[in-house]
Inverse folding.
């Protein structure tokens, strides 16, 4: 079985890797980028998210009509792997699992479901603590003392 990524996915993976290296990993080096609950403050996160949007790396799992990249699942895996090099990576690219189906199912109308999903993808809704993915971090990206 050939596990080689398609050329466009490999190119995207390398772009995400470079973005995380240049814009996201440096955030971990500054203790000011950690809140009392080990999260990045919203104001600091907003800056790197804007850079991700401008770089065309925003919300790989979301449909284009909602501002995402509308990528196939194989590309998600490649992007998630590179984003996970930083504890802030998934937040920066808005590729955290958010479970839209329960939100849509709870909405009484299709219009309400579309509003909820749009707000979630646009990042105007903050993820709950239980939605945070568990990742293993490389030793070089641990929080500074």
């Amino acid at each position: 079985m050939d596990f080689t990524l398609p050329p466009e996915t490999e190119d995207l993976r390398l772009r995400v890797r470079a973005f995380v290296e240049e814009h996201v990993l440096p955030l971990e080096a500054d203790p000011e980028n950690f809140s009392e609950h080990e999260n990045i403050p919203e104001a600091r996160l907003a800056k790197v998210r804007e850079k991700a949007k401008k770089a065309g790396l925003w919300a790989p799992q979301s449909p284009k009509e909602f501002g995402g990249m509308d990528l196939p699942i194989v590309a998600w895996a490649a992007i998630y792997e590179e984003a996970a090099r930083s504890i802030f990576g998934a937040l920066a690219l808005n590729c955290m699992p958010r479970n839209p189906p329960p939100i849509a199912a709870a909405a009484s109308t299709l219009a309400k479901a579309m509003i909820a999903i749009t707000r979630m993808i646009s990042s105007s809704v903050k993820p709950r603590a239980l939605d945070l993915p568990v990742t293993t971090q490389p030793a070089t990206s641990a929080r500074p003392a």
